[in-house]
Amino acid sequence: MGIHYDYKSTKGNKLMEKQAKRERKLAEKKAKRLAKEGSKEEKNTQPALDPSKPISLDFLTNPDKE
Fold first, then answer.
1. What would the DSSP string read from start to end of 20-31?
2. 8 A C-beta contact, residue 49 and residue 55
3. Are 65 and 59 in contact (CB under 8 A)?
4. What value, to the nearest 5°, has the Cα angle with vertex 34 and ends 28 and 40?
5. d(Cα 11, Cα 24) in Å, to the nearest integer?
6. What angle do CA 57, 63, 64 make, to 5 degrees?
7. Distance from first CA to last CA of the chain, Å, rounded?
8. Whole-number pLDDT of residue 61
9. Mean pLDDT of residues grouped by 10 in the chain (66 residues)?
């Protein structure tokens, strides 16, 4: 009889702990995914080529000259 009484009295607390744990895991996954995507965006910030300028051999061999 004691086991049933204990189960009902702690059921609400256990459910709240499970939900908090689930939300914490989701928040960690989201933060990890955003951090991973943020690093990709920083790498892709190269300036686009200007279509009005012709591409020269000098630009192809040494693009950091500008």
1. HHHHHHHHHHHH
2. yes
3. yes
4. 140
5. 20
6. 145
7. 81
8. 83
9. 73 94 97 83 64 81 68
